[in-house]
Amino acid sequence: MSVRQALERIAGRTEPAPAFGFHGADALLQLARSGPAALATAPATPNAPMHIATVIPSFRRGSGGHAIIVHLLESLRARGHRVSIHLEDSDGRHAAEGHAVTRRSFREFFGAKHIELECDLRSWQGADVVLATGWQTVARVLLLDGAGARAYLVQDHEPEFYGTSAESLWAAQTYRYGLHCIAGSPWLAQLLRDRYGASASHYHMGVDGAAYGPSNEPTHERDPGLVIFYARAVTPRRAVPLGLMALDELAHRRADVDIALYGEARPLDLPFAHRNLGVLDAGGLAALYRQATVGLVLSLTNPSLAGLEMMACGLPCVELASESMVATFGASGPLILAEPDPLALAGAMERLLDSPGLRARASHAGVEATAGRTWAAAAVEVEDGLRAAVRLSARS
Q1: Are residues 184 and 76 in the same domain?
Q2: Do residues 189 and 262 share a domain?
């Protein structure tokens, strides 16, 4: 089976779309009719702890965006803030499974230790600041009363998740509602300011140092031919077809390469020898990153957390030389950047496989670049963004 046929098979097994727009279409229509709810009085003490209420869209196992939200909220809680989290079931994914199953899945998928998911907004009682997290949640957040301020955690440029469509229009519109945006990189914050005129600050994604780091074993050795690929095919911005073409070329060039795919629950039937590892938890990912010799992650928009975690484990990583990656890490930074061409990507992986010196330099640079990227540090930047949103609300 060809790469194209394998991906078409996955595409044919997607869930049916809802009959009208998406499950948050009622909120969009209500917002168009009535406009945002009036804000309540913002907190008077500038540096006092806040009640931060967060609204998240539907989720599935392996969602990096939801994992980032949990990391940030757990760290904000550790800083003394009261946090709560509410589900806007934008895909209708959780309606039939019951609240107990949804809460349990959320805890298991994302390691939420101290935060209990509210499966709807029926218990809503207001907050000092309410945080939208994904374009599907923005209309609902704007309609909630009892909010002292509103902010928008923007983890990626979501209009690019879609072709020309109503969804791409709705996603773009969310950046024009006047919410202060807390963007997942300086590159993304600048894009929001330049393209949409949005108020935007940024945070740097963290790495869980308790899970991800280089091996402490003095005799640790990597599998010399093991190349791993973050092949999350349900996420188009991961450019999985391009990555699979590059791996097909690499396998054609080298009979000794051992290719392993992860991040996708459904196996891919491909024309080259490989292993499907499925969706792994943090422990399984860290072990894999310490075992492999080369990692491949492709980011068409904002950088992926997977690449950071690979680097933290000392795994040399090949990425796309996209605008966001060059702006974030530099053209000659810790990542091996290649043009979006299968032969260029295969060549970058082959150079790493053939050069112990290049691998050692990339490994050292990656560990060094991620050493200060903690979720505690990211939470400080997010808190600054939340307080900026409170100040903006007080002036409006």
Answers
A1: yes
A2: no
At residue 19 the predicted structure's pLDDT band, cuts being 50, 70 and 90, is: very low
Q: What is the pLDDT of residues 219-243, one digit of tens each?
A: 788 999 999 999 998 889 999 999 9
Q: Are residues 260 and 289 in the same domain?
A: yes
| DSSP E strand boundaries for 165-293 | 180-183, 200-202, 226-230, 258-262, 275-276
**Would residue 14 count as lying in a domain?**
no
* 145: containing domain: 19-206+375-395
Q: Which two tokens stand for residue 99?
A: 């609240």
H or E stretch at 142: helix 135-143
CATH number at residue 293: 3.40.50.2000
Identify whether residues 101 and 164 lie together within a single domain.
yes
pTM given for the model: 0.90
What are the residues whose beta carbons fall under 8 Å from the beta carbon of 366, sequence distance 6 or more? 310, 311, 312, 314, 315, 316, 317, 334, 335
Give yes or no: residues 82 and 199 share one domain: yes
The share of the chain scoring above pLDDT 70, in percent, equals: 93
The answer to the question of residue 32 being in a domain is yes
CB 330 within 8 A of CB 319: no
Residue 213 near residue 313, CB atoms below 8 Å: yes
Over residues 293-329, the pLDDT tens digits come to 999 999 999 999 999 999 999 999 999 999 999 999 9
Q: Locate all alpha helices (DSSP H) within 144-225, ordered by sequence.
A: 166-173, 186-196
Q: Encoding tokens for residue 328?
A: 């974030």
Same domain for 285 and 341? yes
CA-to-CA distance for 202 and 183, rounded, in angstroms?
4
Residues 119 and 68 in one domain: yes
Please name the amino acid found at residue 302. N
The region that residue 165 occupies, defined by phi over 0 for left and psi between -120 and 50 for alpha, beta otherwise, is beta
Structural domain total, the chain: 2
Distance separating alpha carbons of residues 386 and 152, to the nearest angstrom: 9
